[in-house]
Structure prediction request, 213 residues.
Amino acid sequence: MSALGRARGALASRHIVVCVLVLVTSGLAIAGEKKQRPDWRMERLLIVGIPSFEVADWGEFLEGKEIPYRYDRRTHTIYVQADPLPVLEEAGKEEALAQTVKRGFLERKLEAQMRGEFPEVKDPRICLAFPTDGPIPVEDDSEPIAMVLAGGLRLEEMEQVKYRVADEVEGLPARNVIVMGGRWRPWPGYGGKIEMRTPRKSVAITQTARAEQ
Prediction:
């Protein structure tokens, strides 16, 4: 892989890492905020991983539309109280925000679809990274990538989600979609190995049988 390709991969990976950080830390951060600001109990995720050069533009847009918001500097994330999809549709009219809005709208739309189709999944998160994001030129073979964080999915549902996301995002192959958080877990013997649910006891039994021989 060329240096340019590695740089592009680094940018995409950084966005995915930010998404994971948001999922892990936002609960703690929001809990702290809510103690001081009860009105923010119903806040909704708007945009994750906002480029630093867009922060002022987002603030100007939201304040101009009189939309209350909270900006988390640690994760470069904006939260709003309103339904995020109409807000993003309106933000898409702003040329300076159009590229980030495209990604954010797809993420929030897919999350809404997941909540409707899989009600047992709480607070799903979908993170997309496009080759056109960022200042570095794009290689011809660059492809989007996606990460889905959704606890509570069965194994077959994880496959459904993978292909659903790939179908909804132009140019995104299913092989580039990672789904995490399913409730399915492989047992110790998965993949053809002998299943040993109590390995210490099993080893002790084996040793005793050998000694008797």
